[in-house]
Design a protein that fits this description.
Number of strands: 11
Helix content: 25-40%
Strand content: 15-25%
Strand order of the largest sheet: 5-2-1-6-7-11-10
Shape: globular
Order of helices and strands: EHEEEHEEHHHEHEHEEEH
Radius of gyration: 15 Å
Number of helices: 8
CATH class: Alpha Beta
Number of domains: 1
Largest sheet: 7 strands, mixed
CATH superfamily: Class I glutamine amidotransferase (GATase) domain
């Protein structure tokens, strides 16, 4: 049974993991028979009131992400590449605000170090990584200059240009598609960057997860 780290960034599209995408990743992994290790950084962030869109109080990413994981979650700093066979990252603004600072700093963003370390270690071990929605921006920052991975965030020209400024190669795709960079063992899908609802996001997320698990199987 493959063991996959599901890297969460909070709970809620405006300040954490996009909940629909996170659940679709969970469903795709579970349907494929994978064991899931939910993890997130243990760090503070400023929450967003999802009713008003206004900033809220300080919260903790790991504590918020535990809502999605039903309490079964680990601090990402305590997850080793030896513990899992690969990783999947849902989108949501938390991927661009908590896991990295792409939302505010664009190509000059910084990546949360425990998250970056796990991703780098997974790549060094030849283990695949999948990402949905805006989360590929994080992969562009971690791997762009060295690997120049082929990624997708859909068809938004401005975001695609930012990924390319970090060294990635952008490939346009629809919500129903996944882009597999088999050389670098990275798979991405646009999800809510293109999808209008969870049903539209599902085919691409399922395809992304399937590709990741096929890479695990291939070794």
């Amino acid at each position: 049974m493959p063991k996959i780290a599901l890297i969460l960034s909070g709970c809620g599209v405006q300040d954490g993991s996009e909940i629909h995408e996170a659940v679709l990743c969970l469903v795709a992994l579970q349907k494929a028979g994978a064991e899931i290790v939910c993890c997130a950084p243990d760090m503070e962030f400023t929450s967003v009131n999802h009713l008003t869109g206004k900033p809220g109080e300080k919260r903790n990413v790991l504590v918020e992400a535990a809502r999605i994981a039903r309490g079964q979650i680990r601090d990402i700093a305590k997850v080793s590449a030896k513990d899992v066979d690969g990783a999947v990252l849902p989108g949501g603004f938390g991927a661009a605000k908590n896991l990295c600072t792409f939302a505010t700093d664009g190509p000059n963003c910084r990546v949360n170090e425990p998250t970056a370390k796990l991703l780098r270690d997974l790549h060094a071990a030849g283990k695949p990584v999948g990402a949905a929605c805006i989360a590929p921006a994080l992969l562009a920052k971690v791997f762009g200059n060295d690997l120049h991975p082929e990624l997708t965030i859909g068809d938004d020209a401005g975001t695609a240009k930012a990924l390319e400024a970090m060294g990635a190669k952008h490939k346009a795709a629809t919500a129903a598609q996944a882009v597999a960079d088999r050389k670098n063992r990275i798979v991405t899908t646009p999800a809510y960057m293109c999808a209008k609802n969870a049903a539209e996001a599902w085919p691409g997320i399922e395809a992304m997860v399937r590709e990741v698990l096929e890479m695990v199987k291939a070794g």
